[in-house]
Amino acid sequence: MYDVIIVGGGPAGSIAAERASRDGLSVLVLEKATHPRSKTCGGGVTQKALDVIGGIDKELIERETFGARIFLPDYRNFAGTIGDRVAVMTRRESLDHWLASRAEDAGAVVQDGEAVKDVLFNKDYVEVVTSENQYRSRMVIGSDGVNSTIARRSGIRTRWGDDIGMCLEAEVELGEAVVEECVGDRFTEFYFIGDRGYGWVFPKRDHISIGIGKLITRAHDLKGSFSRFVRDVSLQKNIDIEGKISGINSYRIPAGGFDRRIHSDRVLLTGDAAGFVDPFLGEGIYYALKSGEIAADVTADTVEGGDFSERFLQEYVMRCEKEFNYDLKSALKFANFAYDHRNLFLKALWKDKRLFMEYLRTVRGDMTYTEFNRWCTRRSPVTLAKLIVGR
Q1: Does residue 189 share a domain with residue 80?
Q2: 194-246 pLDDT per residue, tens
Q3: Which of 121, 124, 107 is nearest to 267 (CA)?
């Protein structure tokens, strides 16, 4: 009998496993794939996420970014940087493997290559059934992503609504010199070409991540949109990106800031499984790490107290709300304004460099979305006041 079984070996699961192990709990992590495993993701890790981790090994960092270049629908563009690092670019298979190894070093048992098939709830324990074995624990943490088995089998959530995005992405090998020619050494690129989403080019050491994402309600002919986007970027940069794509990956991202159930008796959901994702940028690693940390702490208190009820585990909901979920609601207000008034938003960024810099600092983690929204209304009360009221 384990104190806690964590399903999913990504950032949320690994950080929860490491922290729970250091708190003295017996921990089993179940990951369906085998580390290092492929993970569809742009690979950007913000500075605030790095601060939660406590820094990562230098060999995991493919590029450092200090700013962004923004492309308008007609491909006119502008760029800005700040003096501090905003994010690093990584290969997710390497980052996730490293985080899982840290959890093992802390004492967690990491069992990869075992997909969870079912979860059975009994009076005194949870039974997790995998493709290979059956395990028992006092608690289970669902860190198994947007298609969470734990969310479904526990009855917390059986399906997503319209508050979810669909993304297509490709990793394209270009060589180090061409990557620098394509993107530059200090930037990520964002293309606001759709009505409710964006495209991106993220530079790695010798390749780029290129992709697009839209709300699922607007994601008609997403494959065609992706092909046109890659073709246009190839033409704009005079670099054959389109011809070097060997495969296209698809994945779903839940938009954060909505009220959702994230726990029940003996169960907590973290990261994408809980819907903790920046609704404007689609960034989820920071929220995965923070929710994983909180889940571990609450689980330790729960095991010590012996009360595994939904009522007692409400502490997890309250701590997530206080530490980041309230701010995700502010991020949702910002996203609704930016996408519903896209031309006004892009014009404001273009004309007001200070606005652009403050948003980069928000991404970095120097201020919250709540603080940024308030700053915006003071900066330009007529055009940006809607951020606060969310209209």
Answers
A1: yes
A2: 666 899 999 999 999 999 998 888 778 889 999 999 999 999 999 999 999 98
A3: 121
| pLDDT, tens digit, 9 for 90 and up, residues 121-131 | 998 999 999 98
Whether the CB-CB separation of 303 and 139 falls below 8 Å is answered with yes
Whether residues 246 and 199 fall in one domain: yes
Q: Is the pLDDT of residue 105 over 90?
A: yes
Length of the chain in residues, anyone?
391
Radius of gyration of the chain (CA): 21
pLDDT at 384 over 60: no
**Domain of 28, in residue numbers:** 2-42+91-159+258-327
SS3 264: strand
Which residue type sits at 312? F
In a domain, 50, yes or no: no
Contact between 279 and 328 under an 8 Å Cβ cutoff? The reply is yes
Same domain assignment for residues 153 and 285: yes
Please provide the average confidence, as pLDDT, over all residues in the chain.
92
Dist. CA 137–CA 125, nearest whole Å:
6
254 pLDDT band (50/70/90 cuts)? very high
The residues facing 170 across adjacent strands are 210
257: left (phi > 0), else alpha (psi -120 to 50), else beta?
Answer: left
- Of the residues 254, 276, 299, which one is the last residue of a structural domain? 254
Q: Which two tokens stand for residue 130?
A: 């995998």
pLDDT per residue over 331-375, tens digit each?
A: 999 999 899 888 888 888 888 899 999 999 999 999 999 999 999
3-state secondary structure of 201: strand
Single residue among 274, 294, 327 that ends a domain in this structure: 327
Structure tokens at 33: 């794939």
β-strand partners of 212: 168, 199
Residue scoring higher pLDDT (319 or 375): 319
Q: Are 28 and 130 in a shared domain?
A: yes
Are 151 and 226 within one domain? no
Cis preceding-peptide flag for 279 (omega within 30 of 0): no
- Is 96 inside any structural domain? yes
Question: Does residue 334 lie in a domain region?
Answer: no
- Whether 188 and 310 share a structural domain: no
Could you tell me the pTM of the whole model?
0.94
The domain tally of the chain equals: 3
